Every structure is written in structure tokens, then in C-alpha cells.
Target: O-antigen ligase-related domain-containing protein
Amino acid sequence: MIFGTYTAIEFYTRPEEHFSFIHLPHTITGKYHSVYFSIQLGINVLLAAFSFKRTKSYYYLLIAIVLFVFMTLLGKRMALLALCALALLFVLRNLNLKAILVFLFSIGIAGAVYLYSPYNRWRMEQFDSNGEGSERMIMMTESMNIIKDHFFVGVSPIGVSSELEKKYSERGIATPFYSNNPHDLPLYVFMAFGLFGFLTYYILQLMLLVVGIRGNKTAFIYVLLFFLAVSVSETILIRQNGIVLYAFILPIIFYEGRKDT
Model:
């Protein structure tokens, strides 16, 4: 949580940053993509919530609230996922009608905030069929076409970029639109490694989930599911930043409290 707090402060005290709700998520400079800041903040929000639940210390509640505010400014999709996870935690711990209503209300509010946020409305206003606003739809469509052509063995990680570029060229879309990945990890894995690689990847994730359930590692399960949910809208494991974050955070949470580690 200390690292997550430091990360947030480091980002928002950069002299080139500004607090535009439209441009803020994409104004970060350097080699560290803003997505990974959002993931760090999301994980720390979840851990702070678990710490508050365990200790009843309002210090952790304050941390969760502050980090969630930073997270909402930086990445609304991540904030929405984190809020869903917190609401789900509340429901599972309080299985009654009131809890379910709170869960549904939270999801509704979060969805409305995202849909009607200045940034999202700006994206919709800029929407067109071959560019601004529709990039992800184009990426997804062409990724699915590549999967159909290379269903079983894929095109390799190196081939993903070149194959997408070919598909964009066929649409008459020129740079700087080109993206070397579909911003969707399941699609990327399927494109790169085919059906067999896709199944292998998710079998491994399922094994981790089963281990967490058997070990009653609630925080580990939530963070793992958070990673998997985030990966649907971002290819977080194709960069070293994402790989290190994934490989570093999950073991620490899983083995937390053990004296032999």
C-alpha cells in the first residue's frame, strides 16, 4: 500500500500533468503506461479494504478512499472493476436482500459515472467508423479475423503486430492509428498462440484460482480475478511492467503471513 500511495503521488506531482478529466489518462509520459498505475492502485484499494475488514482501522479505509479517487481520475475502467469487486465482497459477506440491493445500486452508479463521464462523452462525440472513438472495435474485429485465419497455432507474438497492420491497411487506415496489440489479452493470446495456447493459459489461471480457493486465500482470489478482468480491456502481460507486477504481487499476497517465506 505504501508503494501504491507513492506511485499515485509520483504521477500526480509531475510538472507536465494537469487535471483534465478528458486528457489525464493519456498525458503520462515516459515508459510506464498509465494502465499499470491504475492496476497498482486497484490492487491497493482491494488490499486496503481487506485490511479495514480485518482490523476495523479507519486508517485503511482512508487509504482505500484516497487511492480510489486517484484511480477514478486515472482509469475509469479500472475504478469500475475495483468498485464491482468491493461490492461483490460486501454481498458475499452479507448475503441478504439489503446487501444485494447495495451491490446492484453500486454497479448502477459506477456504470452511470463511467458512461456519462466527460472523457467518455468526448470519446463518443469523436466516434467515427475508421478512427477516433472506434479504435477498440476495429482492433477487436480485425483480431477476430486473424484468429479465424490462424485458429489452432496462432501467428506468434511477433506476428500479431504485422498481421494487425495488414488488416488496418486493408481498411485504408494509416498511422498513427496502428496498434501492435488488440488491447485485450484473451484475444492477444489466441492470436499469438492459437487455440492450444489460449486453453493452456486459462487452464493455468484456473489452477491458480483453485489453489486460492482451497487455501481460503480470499485476498489472493480477488486480486487474481481483478487481473483477469482488467486483461479483457488491456494486454497487461505483453509488457515487462505487467509481467513483473503480476508475478510479484500474487505470490506476496498468497504467502502473506507465512513465517517460512
About this structure: Residues 17-31 have pLDDT under 50 and may be disordered. Residues 142 and 167 are 6 Å apart (CA to CA). Residues 185-214 form the longest helix (30 residues).
